[in-house]
Amino acid sequence: MFSFYQHIPQYLDPIIFSIGSFAIRWYSLMYVAGILTAFFLLRWRIGKGEAPQDFKISNSKTEKSGELGITLDILLVGFWGMLFGGRLGYILFYNFPYYLQNPVEALLPVAVSGDGLRITGYYGLSYHGALLGVIASGYVFSKIRKLDFWRVADFVAPAAAGAYFFGRIGNFLNGELWGRETNSFLGMYFGEDFFLRHPSQLYEAFLEGLVLFLLLWIIRNKGRFDGQVFLVYIVGYAFFRYVSEYFRSPDWQSGLILGIFSTGQLLSLCMLAGGSLLYFQKNRKNAII
Length: 289
Prior knowledge:
Blueprint: H1 2-6, H2 8-11, E1 15-19, E2 22-25, H3 26-47, H4 63-93, H5 96-101, H6 103-107, E3 110-113, E4 116-119, H7 127-144, H8 149-173, H9 200-219, H10 228-244, H11 263-288
Antiparallel strand pairs: 1-2, 3-4
């Protein structure tokens, strides 16, 4: 039974089914599951009257339909911000020298070789880049729609953590981003490897997804100032990601920086510092008021 557990990744097929060259992957299904999870969580909160006050639109057929419409717009804008930011972040943070020499591959899902172009798909996305893309697109959207950005961010943050859980499960099912070698009973065999490795994708799904979601869900209506729930998400994610990186194999493109830190850890330290600074500034300002 324990042997079965250790070999689970090797039993998994990233492809659910295929018809000719068209394939449905577990990774894609997990993305869909994450988006649907975020949508239903936000819709539930709207039904409970937890949407921000400025979501209400006077010319809507009903108040809740107006709130739901804005929520769908936010999810759509956030989705494109996530894709664009995630791709740009991967290029800049993880493999910039390569894409500087191969700009076509940065823009299109192809690889350039002596035989011409080969379709590869977009296999490189960065969470930190995706977060910046979502924040930027959400900020612009809030300004255009005359919404308070911090209230929007507070409203969306718990759902984002819930959706993130499925993203890391998708990494596990896809057989990627596995952990460092270990002798721990938690270790698993990935690919053709003969060494046990930490299932770091599952650690991240648990800490950065499930645990963080539960924390944010508990405090979702208890913020003392606008932006508190969102900043707890920023700080909490950065902390959990920093810890999880000690179990995750360093990125092959950059390895360990200074022989100590992974790229993800350095980005998370910046995220932790920025989120903490904003939190204490806004908390102090609220206390003075």
